[in-house]
Amino acid sequence: MINASLKQLSQALAAKRISSIELTQLYLDRIARLNPALNAFVTVDPEKSLKMARAADARIAAASGAKPAGPLTGIPIAQKDIFCAEGWRTTCGSRMLANFISPYDATVIQKMHAEAGLVSLGKTNMDEFAMGSSNETSFFGPVRNPWDQQRVPGGSSGGSAAAVAARLAPAATGTDTGGSIRQPAALCNLTGLKPTYGVVSRYGMIAFASSLDQGGPMARSAEDCALLLNSMAGFDERDSTSLDRPLEDYARELEKPLTGLRIGLPKEFFGAGCDAGVMAAVQAAIDEYRKLGATTVEVSLPNSHLSVPAYYVIAPAEASSNLSRFDGVRYGYRAPEYGNLDDMYMKSRAQGFGAEVKRRILIGTYVLSHGYYDAYYLQAQRIRRLIANDFVEAFKSCDVIMGPTSPTTAFKLGEKAADPVQMYLSDIYTIAVNLAGLPGMSIPCGFAGGLPVGLQLIGNYFAEAQLLNMAHRYQQVSDWHQRSPAGID
Amino acid sequence: MNQWEVVIGIETHAQLATATKIFSGAATAFGAAPNTQACAVDLALPGVLPVLNKMAVECAIRFGLAIDAEVAGKSVFARKNYFYPDLPKGYQISQMDLPVVVGGKIALQVGQGDKAYEKVVRLTRAHLEEDAGKSLHEDFHGKSGIDLNRAGTPLLEIVSEPDMRSSDEAVAYAKVLHALVRWIGICDGNMQEGSFRCDANVSVRPKGQAELGTRREIKNLNSFRFLKEAIDFEVQWQINEIEEGRKIRQATVLFDPDTGETRMMRSKEDAHDYRYFPDPDLLPLAISADWIDRVKGELPELPRQMRERFISDLGLSGYDATTLTASQEMADYFESTVTIAGKANAKPCANWVMVDLAARLNKEGRELAESPVSAAQLAGLVQRIADNTVSNNIAKKVFDALWNGDGATADEVIERQGLRQITDSGAIAALVDEVLAANAASVAEFRAGKEKAFNALVGQVMKAAKGKANPQQVNDLLRQKLAG
Fold first, then answer.
1. B413 Cβ contact partners less than 8 Å away, ≥ 6 residues apart
2. Of A1, A168, A217, B341, which one has the fewest beta carbons inside 10 Å?
3. B425-483 in CATH: which number?
């Protein structure tokens, strides 16, 4: 059962071979047993989860041919703790919100619960305010990679990645600001999709960098991601950056043949800086795509080397402002002792935020300051446009772009924690996609040194269905995505 | 004082009369229990996002059209970052580089009567922004309370050029602006509740100097009287400082109505670095030409258009037309009066509204809306003057009676009190004869060339007629008889 696809679970539930209560309880038991070592979940609330499961079972029981329950009704999933969920503690991995119970549902949560009938198993650990690539910046301690518990699961959606990899949940939500869905998916042997900016509502998703943040699915297959994205996506009038487009079925093109498809290989993604083992697995996957009928063409993203510096101006700038609301006044952490108002602000924020968050608030405050704004923030915005234009040019000669998701496999806990720049470079292949607002995926494509390697697929705007199609066809001829770590039975 | 020129620019925050807030669906009504009109967005809960209220944009468009400004096809919301307990997000959403309204002008009339002069004040810009909440420092046992009901209330910040040269001009500007935002229905203008508040940027410079002096900004003036008092004090203070050899340093100051003085709040050195940047949660605001056209079609006749009509159509002077269009209430009252009394009587209607009625209202501290004399009653009175039923002097008596409720119409008052003018020349001639007979001395003086004596005789005839004789006829008959 724990290796069943969402489709199989859906069929089993509809046929009443299993109830949502049973399925939910099965996962809650696994979480109780395995989570203490992995630290993938920061909050589980079996009572709430089982209540939702009971409601889902009632929906399934009441369903009829004329009025079927939604395909995901009763399936339990894990929610990244960045999504506000009514009545649930919502921490964003921070001491600042360690006791914050959300009074409202994020749009994504509302859609998944109320519309799709999904059951939430709990809230998953994450880098504090999604700032990190290793899940080591969480106030609740690091998450361990189920493939090697001495190693990181990636970040910031590391808890979601570890949970799905260890079969503590069939699938999970994640968010991706610079690679936070794709990089942990790569490091934990999962399939993860960051949609086009504006496809998934950001309302109720705690903001890190508003112009880059995008929620998306993390699962064990492209097909699962497609089904999950169906329940997450859609225009939301409460998010002004949400795109008003017709709803689509992201699974509609899964089986389409890949014959004639042109794959662009950016020369900048295949040079130095990438581990040989990672590169070998990526090349082998590309060969497999050729066998599936695709052709490859070299393309160039000449400004991609500027993506990390531009990102580390824009994202901190937005974050420094987004995180100003955490001031100890209305909710969240307030220092127990303080002298006056300024002292209350300083102590609450000094104690409530961790080192990486403070670093980024400082960077962001600096680049927006009078006298530096033009040289940093405006310049970074110009580079952002150049990077987006690079992709526009590249897509003139290809349908999809491929390369490694991350330059390395999962690294050891603590290995990069003291060197922020090394840490930032783990996202060197993913960040440009966020800056351009494009959809990107990571899919399992092999192992190096016993650790999973991710292949990145980058599509044109709104090409989610096409990316899922490409991933699915590959997963029909490979079994990397079906492999599971040892010691999780 | 005489060698100094005063330079004033005014920033006004007009609270827009929308039912809901600028970026959330919470109500904007004034006076609700603290924090009952603040939703998740206003409280800046984690994860919430702003959605722009289109009605606030329409208000900005209306204003832009009313002052002949450019309504920007594209404007951008920016975040103004600073920490304060009543600013829930830690930033205010405002507009910086690209405001929604650019330029424009407002015509004023400064002073009264003979000393009145026309003045045009140019506007720099007007932009949309959200208001903050309120900090309440009393009644919390040493702590401060925060009320977020006002947080997110839409404001239009209207910025003038430094075109005003005296506190009188500043007050005239503020009054015209106040009337205008109410006229076009975008602001209730309630200054006590803070719906319309002004900041005055004040500097002085030696007359003839082109360069501006260093300014100080007086914050949050919520009455015209405070605006005038604050500027007058500030100007004198700045002149004294300079004359005593000190330099003015740029600063923000507060006006204390109790002492009548301004005092420093913060200097330029401790000014915040607001770190403005475009708000990534909001798309640039696009306003199409169609939208502007539709709003234009819904605008009422504007004061300046009405003023032109009063001049060309009713033959009023520029001064009268400006005075009568200074507020919607005044204009409506005047128009109603003229509609009944007839266009031919526009000038006397104007005089009655601007002079007699205004003086009486002023004396009793009442607003026009509370006038006991209605436009219809006043029109009836003006008609009776026009057809010589009563003289202007007697009309004042009739007006008093109407004011006091002694009669429903001018006609009723005239009949009941027997105020009808005597126009029968036989009757007047009889009175004249009586007076001439009884005042031989005055007659002699007049004949000796003393014109004053004539006025005394007129007075006697009027007295004998209990004021009701037609003054022109009295004059004419007296002259005839004295000449004869």
1. B398, B401, B402, B406, B407, B419
2. A1
3. 1.10.10.410
Cβ-Cβ contacts under 8 Å for A217 (sequence gap 6 or more): A171, A172, A173, A174, A192, A193, A224, A225, A228, A229, A232
Domain assignment present for A247: no
- Beta-sheet strands, E only, within B193-298: 196-206, 216-221, 251-256, 261-267, 277-278, 285-286
| CATH number of the domain bearing residue A37 | 3.90.1300.10
Identify residue B241 by its one-letter amino acid code: E
Please give the torsion angle defined by the CA atoms of residues B235, B241, B244 and B247, in that order, rounded to the nearest 10 degrees: -130
Domain residue spans in chain B?
Answer: 11-205+272-293, 301-417, 425-483
CA A454, CA A442: separation in Å to the nearest integer? 6
Percent of all residues in chain B with a pLDDT value above 90, rounded to a whole number: 75
Residues of B in contact with A320 (CB under 8 A): 81, 275
Q: Looking at the complex, does the CB of residue A13 fall below 8 Å from at least one CB of chain B?
A: no
User: Please, are residues B229 and B215 in contact by the beta-carbon 8 Å criterion?
Assistant: no
Asked if B474 and B461 count as a contact pair (C-beta separation under 8 A), the reply is: yes
A295-299 and A262-266 beta bridge pairing: parallel
Please name every residue paired with A148 in a beta bridge, in sequence order, or none if there are none: A145
CA atoms within 13 A on the CB side of A194: 33
Nearest-CB residue to B46 (from A97, A238, A327): A97
Of B46, B48, B276, the CB nearest to A90: B46
Residue B480: φ, ψ to 5°: -55, -50
Alpha carbons B333 and B343: distance in angstroms, whole number:
14
What ipTM was assigned to the predicted interfaces of this complex? 0.96
Answer yes or no: is pLDDT of B481 > 90.
Answer: no
